[in-house]
Amino acid sequence: MAAASSSLSEDQFLCSICLDVFTDPVTTPCGHNFCKNCITTHWNINVPYQCPNCKNIFDTRPELQVNTFVSEMVSHFRQSAQQRASSSEQQAAEPGDVPCDVCTGPKVKALKSCLVCLVSYCETHLEPHLTASGLKRHQLIDPVENLEGRMCMKHDKPLELFCNTDQMCVCMLCSVLDHKSHDVVPLKEEYERNLAKLGKTEAGVQQMIEERRLKIQEFKHSINISRENADREIAIKNHVFTELKEAIERHQVKLIKMAEEKHRMTEKQAEGFIKELEQEISELEKRSDELEQLSRSEDHLNLVQKFPSLDAAPPTKNWIEVKVCPPSYEGTVGTTVDQLVEMLKNEMKKLLTNIELKTVQQSAVDVTLDPDTAHPRLILSEDGKQVHDGAVWKDLPESPKRFSLGLCVLGKQFVSSGRFYFEVQVKGKTKWGLGVVRESVNRKGPITASPQNGYWTIGLMNEIIYHTVTESLVPLSLKSKPEKVGVFVDYDEGLVSFYDVDAAALIYTFTGCSFTGKLHPFFFPCANQDGENSAPLIICPVNLLNLMTCHVPQKD
Predict the structure, then answer these.
(1) For residue range 37-47, what is the model confidence (pLDDT) as tens digits?
(2) Domain ends where: 89, 113, 130?
(3) Structure pTM?
(4) Is residue 103 in a domain?
């Protein structure tokens, strides 16, 4: 009950002159209450003496009486307000905050600013503006500093209007004096108009921010791609130079070995001759000793008897024509350089082919066989990765996609732009065909494989690898038959290449191709003749784990 009474009487604690809680409240003869200082100052300025509330005029200056009851109530109200302020734990103003202009002690953070009073209030001192009917009409905003800047410096009136003509805020007096004929609107109207523009501007700014964030992501992605490409290029070049360096070192060892071998042969020959000569010298020295002893003999009979056997020299070789010729190294430098250049050419060719293969393998596609295209004799594995001739016709529904004569099947996947790569194991087969074909090839008659007919293929027949540049088979000269074949298509460049995967060697490339429409992988396992050529063609997964680990086979 006391709380309700206090709440109802708060309006009565406000001085109608200063609009603040009474300080030293006094009562006029007409019964109205004011702060002693407020009413005294008012009567000092205004004559006659009139009550600011009821406008009652007094002939003489009234004697003011202290209102004890109101003083006690104001004191009680102030204590209650302080308790509420203490219980609400208002936040002390910190640097950057707008402080309350009314607080006499430590400044509390302002909650609102009044555009009429030009004062910022904390929660406690804002109370009258929330409860008093006269103050409720005041315009409150979030706390701001420099409220004086919201007053017209010329007329000391609030800046309540906006002049569209001069694009500036003005007061009421400005609108009828300096801006009389201008397009002037209430400040709130201009605020709402700008607020609408602000939303669009903010949306535009946010869009610009998002666009720039996306651009940053794009640049960062470009940096990452560049780093990956640079790392890949560095790895490739390091590998190339390492391989070439090792190849040169192997060649150097080989040349040194050949020179050492020549020297060893010469040395062995010379040492053999030296050994023979030393043996002959030993025999001759022995004969010389015997002759010397005989020459000192005074025994006539002994000398005559032994001399005939010592007269002839021991058997020896005629060494006049015998020579040891040191091996000639004339022209060795030029020959070595020529051999080195040729060796480097071969090594570079191997390296580049290997790197090329690793590059095209990055375009690998997971290819599976399309059973709707398979000839009725072909057997496909459940996973669609293997095919061989079953030698028995199956009863299958007729389909325009199915090959009717050739033992062929296509892959489900296709390429119509960009790059495409897959690998097929042909190990154990005596005949086979592989490649890509145009989707529109005729599947109901005899197959004549050639680019003109939409076939880009190679194959094995009679132990010879061939390709089909024309409608006839053209043999290829290869050192060995491949066991795993890689098929690569660059649709945009118009080329189809075939690789021996295990040897990292290029088998053949169709260039200058004119592709139209889709190209599908083509598989031709050929006939199974009484168990011969029964091995399947197997689509193999491409090993992408070690694409940069190139290996060039070393020479023995």
Answers:
(1) 888 888 887 76
(2) 89
(3) 0.48
(4) no
